[in-house]
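Box S1 | Example of a co-folding query
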Amino acid sequence: MPVQETFYEVMRRHGITRRSFLKFCSLTAAGLGLGPEFAGKLAHALENKPRTPVIWLHGLECTCCTESFIRSGNPLAGDVVLSMISLDYDDTLMAAAGHQAEELLEQTIEKYDGQYILACEGNPPLNEDGMYCIQGGRPYVEKLRHMADHCKAIIAWGSCASWGCVQAARPNPTRATPIHKVILDKPIVKVPGCPPIAEVMTGVITYMIAFDDLPELDRQGRPKMFYSQRLHDKCYRRPHFDAGQFVERFDDEGARRGYCLYKVGCKGPTTYNACSTIEWNGGLSWPVKSGHGCLGCAEDNFWDKGSFYSAVTDFGVLGDVEADADRVGAILAGAAAIGVAAHAAVSVASHLSGSKQGSKENG
Amino acid sequence: MATVMETKHAPENQAAVYVFEAPVRIWHWTHTFSILVCAATGYLIAYPLPSVGGEASQHFLMGNLRLIHFISSYVFAIGFVVRLYWAFVGNRFSRELFLPPIFKAAWWEGLWYELRFYLFLTREQRKTPGHNPMAQIAMWLFNVLLGLVMIGTGFALYGEGLGLGSWADRLFGWVIPFFGGAQNTRMWHLMGMWLLIVFAIIHVYMAIRADIIGRQSSVSTIISGWRTYKDDLP
Ligand code: HEM
Ligand code: HEM
Ligand code: SF4
Ligand code: SF4
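Box S1 (continued) | Returned holo structure for iron/sulfur cluster
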């Protein structure tokens, strides 16, 4: 086997200085929530391990994950990681096109069978044999299955690959299906969000290629270092929530004072993501900071729950009928009260006529 | 095991029966109270009160409402466990709540009979020292099954606040993906509140109705434990 290049060599070849490389290592280690000693370990791994190839596929999606990724707040991370991965295959970013590009995939399989990471942006539609997404003349789902067969692990970028996202919204005409329901035999790391935060993306991918391991995952397959808490747990408006100070309308006094956005539908209490800690665009801001509630974009099925502007949402008990728990509940309770009143009336009537007949029911 | 049935005096059909032992009665009223408190505070979590004025540091309204909700949730959950324990050591009526005898034909016949009775299709009311079959199935659905759903969804949500790896997360964390995410879990928890309210309306109506026009005692039974009969007929 030919000696493979290390990541460090690749970066140097791409004109990244050693100083920048070390900076990147310490920033990434900090971003991953690892101790200071890990900066050295990360550098060591990237200097000595042969480069793990990354294949980046695009299914049904809007490319917002890529957009987020290449706008990484820390330009260093963007440059470094891009130089690490753009080598292999990413049909949005790479120079090659057409047959030349598709050939790269086969070459990667030949050279690195079972060793490369498959990063999936978007998902495959399964209806009509997958005809709603054709790439290189064949359904995307076939390409995905083929590449997954030979990969080591999969990263499901964004809510599309992780949960389905808007293209899977009811009634999901193309049957867009998240990766974990199509590929059943490979480890999958879900990085949900629409899009995920750039630092989260670079952090996860760097961890995987540097340590040649999956990050620790939660019950639903998300890396614990970024998805173990709700936005609500770390939100800077939380003191207003606990005090009972809420924005009622977007133009009221509460909104001007920066009160909690729960009553105008903030989904922070039910959304696992790193927005309230890492924030967006290099830590510039995040939705709640700019005065709008969280939409819950990193959660399964967030697009099908009705209004983004109310705390109580639909939950689809009755299939396609939109019904929130309160409407169903209040109707049931009302029906129970009316039923009870009617039953009581009939009981009295029946009882009175019954006693006249001298029934043995007495009381 | 406790005595099967204690009676004050013969003959069979008019003798008072000791149905609800003290722990069952105490449980009934703590259970009722905890549900009322949970429903009131839970509703105010779903629909918070108008904002309080002043600085956030001066108030802890939502925090306190949540605290009361959680305390009364613990009462509800611990009560459930104690009541379950009592089903093992209590009298035979103490097991009726948990084990409707759905494999006995006579029980189904009884259910059908009660249904007709409450639809005014028959006037004859049967005497049942414990719960009649219809009461029993309703008790099971709304108190055992729904009780477990409230505890499961409630502690799963509670575990989110305690954090990943906390005891509540390890025990109940699986509930959240089961319901399809945290938001859905909350909405099922809220739905559960409404179902409990539906049960309470019908249950209280039936209890009072039975007391007024039934052949046997009802509300006094869940207070004193004794089932008394108003006639000597079978
Ligand atoms: C038994 C009757 C109960 C009722 C009627 C009830 C009702 C409610 C309601 C209506 C909500 C608001 C849901 C929403 O966001 O719209 C709620 C929230 C909640 N309940 Fe319960 N609940 C009950 C039992 C429990 C139990 C046993 C627990 C276990 C600890 C629990 C824990 C919670 C938690 C953690 C929340 C979310 C509070 C927050 O994060 O702010 N509940 N409950
Ligand atoms: C949310 C409120 C309530 C709930 C969930 C509830 C639940 C129950 C349960 C589970 C039992 C069965 C006890 C056992 O076998 O262990 C029961 C019995 C009973 N409850 Fe309640 N209860 C509630 C409120 C009330 C109230 C307010 C009253 C009084 C008006 C009442 C009157 C009774 C009576 C009379 C019985 C005995 C039924 C019989 O004779 O078979 N309950 N209740
Ligand atoms: S703004 Fe949203 S995330 Fe922040 S405290 Fe309020 S509900 Fe929670
Ligand atoms: S605040 Fe909510 S909706 Fe906005 S990006 Fe973060 S998780 Fe998505």
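The domain at 2-49+61-228 of chain B is CATH 1.20.950.20 (Fumarate Reductase Cytochrome B subunit). Chain B is about 60% helix and 0% strand.
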